[in-house]
Amino acid sequence: MSSSVEAITVLSSDGDEFKITVSAAKLSKPLNWMLEDVCFSDDCDEVPTIEVNSKTLVKVIEYCEKHAPRANSGASDSDAEELKKWDIEFMKMDVKDILFHILMAANYLHMEGLYDLACQTAADLMKGMTVSQIRKIFHIKNDFSSEEQEQLRRQHPGCSFD
Amino acid sequence: MVRQPNSNLPQELLEDILSRVPYKSLSRFKCVSKFWYALFSDPKFQALHLSHFIKHHTFDNSVLLGLSFPSGLNLQNYKLFSLSGNDSSAVDNLLPKFKLLSTKFRISGHCNGILCLAGGYWSHNDEVILYNPATREFTSLPDSKMRSNSSSALAVGLGYDSRTDDYKVVRIWSVDTGVYTTNRVEVYSLNTDSWTRMYNSNTRDFDFAEDCFALFFKGTYYWWGSKRGDKSTIILGLTMGHEDFLKVSVPDNVDISKSNGRSLAVWKQSISLICCSGSGLNMSIDIWVMKGSGVQCSWTKMQSVTSLLLEEPKPLVFWKENEILLETTNGEIKSYNVVTQKIKDLKIEGNPVLHSVQAVNYEATLVPIKGGSYLT
């Protein structure tokens, strides 16, 4: 890889091209390996594909670019505080529509920071939900028979199946 | 393990998310499906849940209050109340019904959602119980060999040993040998369900009073003690796995001799010392934070509050990030925010007995108590 390259081009699973700076790509181990293996100079034709859809990849790259300066050089406490606030704003998104996709992408791209953030955000969103809301989000059928429900109600007074 | 059908999220990721959901919600979600019900009682999942809980939890969103209430002729009835972060006026009763502890007991320690309840110094009852109020599982600790006519149990403290995944109770006894009075220390392990005497605890230079256990934080037990010579108050640290007490000096020029005017608490992931002195116009609350640990630690004064006009308040714990719970001499509980400097009254029904309040930062957990049984 030429040291003069500052940004690389990758393809999403939908075939769209995205640019990501080298320093931001370093947040992901697989992308980092790619930097070493794949030729990114202008005379190369090969553009690596990331198995993440465009909608999700936009967000993942946005996260990487925001976090890259701190990850690469360290930062002061006030920067860390600012970044924390940014993370909270960044995570304001629909659970099913995008958050789970980001979680899966962070897992696939070995991005520990984003993975933890997405997991915790999902957990925080779920904790206030009702049982039926949970079932809807995860496409789960209530597979307790009415006898089993009755038994559970006796064992755990106040438990609800809705 | 059974794979869960029809979920768009890989099972490993779903379990990882669920392991970060607070216990209170999980106990509702067990009704989602048979798979979820089974998952929450899987020991592997419980271990993952606990590890996230310890790593990420600040433990300060809710508090358990232990309060005595007058009932009949001088008999005191002990009750547990939970105080949650969002609503500071509503308190729930979590009264456990233990036969032997029904008249008087104290919260003698707590760790990862498990409470250590003991009969207390004056009850002449050295029964110790570990109790998880969320799962209602409990166990009664076996009798100690140290019990004799010449010994009395001063205090017990509960801690967690992450290396062996074990809960350990430390108890200090005061023993009258006939010639002199000395301390003896013993440790109970939940894994082995037995007490072991700690021989080199190095306590001959210190006096302990009843209820000298202060708190367990990051692998270290903290006890209040005093030097045998000049009777000055000190803090003693007992680190998990080490058999000797480390002396932790207290801030200079601070009078912490009055036990109702000081408290060790956790604030912003550090040990803090809250000292109250004076009353009315001369009242002040000083807050110190411990930097480092053991002999190398030092205290930094964070704040001095002087404008509250309270009569000899007793500091309890920090909660909701920046609020201190205080008990006043007329039996009220107040919550003081050290940032906004606002003070709020907390309503507790039933006229609790004065000077009886205990408070611990508590959060419900799934933590099982090995060999325990369930309250019905």
From TrEMBL, chain A:
This protein's pathway: Protein modification; protein ubiquitination
Name listed for the protein in its UniProt record: SKP1-like protein
Record keywords: Ubl conjugation pathway
Free-text function comment from the UniProt entry: Involved in ubiquitination and subsequent proteasomal degradation of target proteins. Together with CUL1, RBX1 and a F-box protein, it forms a SCF E3 ubiquitin ligase complex. The functional specificity of this complex depends on the type of F-box protein. In the SCF complex, it serves as an adapter that links the F-box protein to CUL1.
Similarity section: Belongs to the SKP1 family.
Keyword Ribosomal protein assigned: no
Entry-linked SUPFAM superfamilies: POZ domain, Skp1 dimerisation domain-like
Organism of derivation: Acacia crassicarpa (northern wattle)
Record's keyword annotation contains Acetylation: no
Highest classification ranks of the organism: Eukaryota, Viridiplantae, Streptophyta, Embryophyta, Tracheophyta
SKP1 component dimerisation domain sequence ranges: 113-157
Pfam family, one: Skp1_POZ
Subunit details: Part of a SCF (SKP1-cullin-F-box) protein ligase complex.
Domain SKP1 component POZ residue range list: 8-67
Any one Gene Ontology BP term: ubiquitin-dependent protein catabolic process
UniProtKB/TrEMBL annotation, chain B:
Limits of the F-box domain: 3-48
Residue ranges crossing the lipid bilayer per the database entry: none
Pfam families for this protein: F-box, FBA_1
InterPro entries found in the cross-reference section: F-box-assoc_dom_typ1, F-box-assoc_interact_dom, F-box-like_dom_sf, F-box_dom, Gal_Oxase/kelch_b-propeller, Kelch-typ_b-propeller, SCF_F-box_component
Domain of life: Eukaryota
The protein, known as: F-box domain-containing protein
Organism: Acacia crassicarpa (northern wattle)
Organism classification: Eukaryota, Viridiplantae, Streptophyta, Embryophyta, Tracheophyta
